[in-house]
């Protein structure tokens, strides 16, 4: 099905199409481009114009460019514009304008992507759903998501992120959501903000893009919740609070971590409900309450959303849990891996440590014969001038007492390593690759191993190495 014709794309962007063409998708990456895609030649680490010929060779329907690239025939299917990124923004806004979809936008210091995927799951089977890929939530990710949206979409889920002040409001105005959700506000990106209150004001800017009569779904348990609520009121939004506090419209009453799941009870306005998500973590259950509020505000069926969430598990690198078979020839020679290696800050690290602390290692297997809880923690980045103190403070997290060994990776994590009780202190290395040669000796059958860190710490390399110790067997394949 045609997503953009040459004429429609030219009208949307103000550009000139060299020929007639029809695109079935939009791509910015020749490594993942599919035949029929419109290739957008963005300038990032490299100029996308250098890859136009390759994109066309791979079957791209056309390329969005600001000039005819060297080596490309002037008669090739091109959409020529003044500047590529502003043209992509205009294409995204045109994609948003032509649909009657109910649109939700999600931001927050922690949990944006997993909550976006949770909402996608909640809406499944209730209409045609379009959602952002991966973590496409920045100045090019949001317009790209909108440009990819089919005109007949029923529900759209847009993720909006930021690194600096002033980034969220323009993206929210571009998305024009009917519902906007803030998952939480935490000490993230403090290099660019004076304090957490400044972060809250930036997150609250998402409400500036709300359509008239829109709904704001806010975490009501935060010290900065009043800032979020004030911004929502200023935008004329209807406010729904979620959390554990008694003042929230959607209130978590209890949550229990089970093998591969979190189950609990909640009160949704005046209705008592049972809830389940197919992963471990009280924070996932809290965000599920917000997701249910968003889905209902979008016009989806609440009961179906709750049922869909019972089978939801987070995407890779964001708390996924899997069984690693270390010796296929011997029954029980496995360890449990918690892959949370995509992002980290004190709030999300505390939540992940709580999941690890609640896990159950297995005795009687492996070299050690006693299962252990092991954490391998990489640097938490963008925390500002107090970053070393914030790393060291994690030694006082209540979950640390239940963890046998904590290995630390990165210069910032050295502060945590020094602050840990001696009996919990494992290895410290400056770079993740330094831990690779000893990894097989640091973990064993029966262990539960958490790998957590900011993406820049590269502890995902350790996740891959642990998987290669045996054969991967996702826990989702087991009976819940």
Automatic annotation (TrEMBL):
It is found in: Cytoplasm. Pathway: Cell wall biogenesis; peptidoglycan biosynthesis. Residues 334-454 form the Mur ligase C-terminal domain. ATP binds at residues 108-114. GO terms for molecular function: UDP-N-acetylmuramoyl-tripeptide-D-alanyl-D-alanine ligase activity. It comes from the Bacteria. Residues 24-67 form the Mur ligase N-terminal catalytic domain. NCBIfam families: murF. Belongs to the MurCDEF family. MurF subfamily. This is UDP-N-acetylmuramoyl-tripeptide--D-alanyl-D-alanine ligase. It comes from Limimaricola variabilis.
């Amino acid at each position: 099905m045609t997503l953009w014709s040459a004429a429609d794309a030219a009208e949307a962007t103000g550009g000139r199409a060299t020929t007639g063409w029809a695109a079935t998708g939009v791509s910015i990456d020749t490594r993942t481009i599919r035949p029929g895609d419109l290739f957008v030649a963005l300038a990032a680490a490299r100029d996308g114009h250098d890859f136009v010929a390759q994109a066309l060779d791979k079957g791209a329907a056309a390329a969005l460019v600001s000039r005819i690239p060297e080596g490309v025939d002037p008669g090739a299917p091109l959409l020529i514009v003044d500047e590529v990124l502003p043209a992509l923004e205009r294409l995204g806004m045109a994609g948003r304008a032509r649909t009657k979809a109910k649109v939700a936008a999600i931001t927050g210091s922690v949990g944006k992507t997993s909550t976006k995927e949770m909402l996608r799951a909640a809406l499944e089977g209730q209409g045609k759903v379009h959602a952002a890929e991966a973590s496409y939530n920045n100045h090019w990710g949001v317009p790209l998501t909108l440009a990819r949206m089919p005109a007949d979409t029923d529900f759209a889920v847009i993720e909006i992120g930021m690194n600096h002040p002033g980034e969220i409001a323009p993206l929210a105005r571009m998305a024009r959501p009917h519902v906007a959700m803030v998952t939480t506000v935490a000490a993230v990106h403090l290099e660019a903000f004076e304090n957490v209150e400044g972060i809250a004001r930036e997150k609250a800017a998402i409400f500036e893009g709300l359509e008239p009569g829109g709904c704001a779904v806010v975490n009501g348990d935060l010290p900065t919740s009043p800032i979020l609520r004030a911004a929502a009121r200023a935008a004329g939004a209807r406010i729904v609070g979620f959390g554990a506090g008694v003042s929230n419209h959607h209130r978590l009453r209890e949550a229990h971590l089970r093998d591969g799941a979190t189950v609990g009870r909640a009160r949704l306005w005046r209705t008592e409900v049972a809830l389940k998500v197919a992963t471990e973590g009280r924070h996932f259950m809290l965000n599920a309450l917000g997701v249910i509020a968003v889905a209902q505000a979008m016009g989806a069926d609440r009961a179906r959303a709750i049922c869909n969430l019972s089978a939801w598990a987070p995407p890779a690198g964001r708390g996924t849990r899997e069984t690693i078979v270390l010796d296929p020839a011997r029954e029980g020679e496995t360890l449990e891996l918690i892959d949370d290696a995509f992002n980290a800050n004190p709030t999300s690290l505390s939540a992940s440590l709580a999941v690890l602390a609640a896990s159950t290692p297995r005795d009687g297997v492996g070299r050690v014969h006693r299962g252990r809880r092991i954490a391998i923690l990489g640097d938490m980045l963008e925390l500002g001038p107090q970053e070393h103190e914030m790393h060291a403070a994690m030694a006082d997290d209540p979950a640390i007492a239940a963890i046998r060994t904590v290995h630390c990776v990165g210069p910032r994590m050295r502060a945590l390593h020094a602050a840990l009780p001696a009996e919990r202190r494992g290895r410290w290395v400056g770079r993740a690759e330094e831990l690779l040669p000893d990894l097989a000796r640091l973990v064993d059958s029966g262990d539960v191993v958490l790998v957590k860190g900011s993406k820049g710490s590269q502890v995902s390399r350790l996740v891959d190495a642990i998987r290669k110790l045996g054969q991967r067997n996702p826990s989702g394949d087991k009976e819940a």
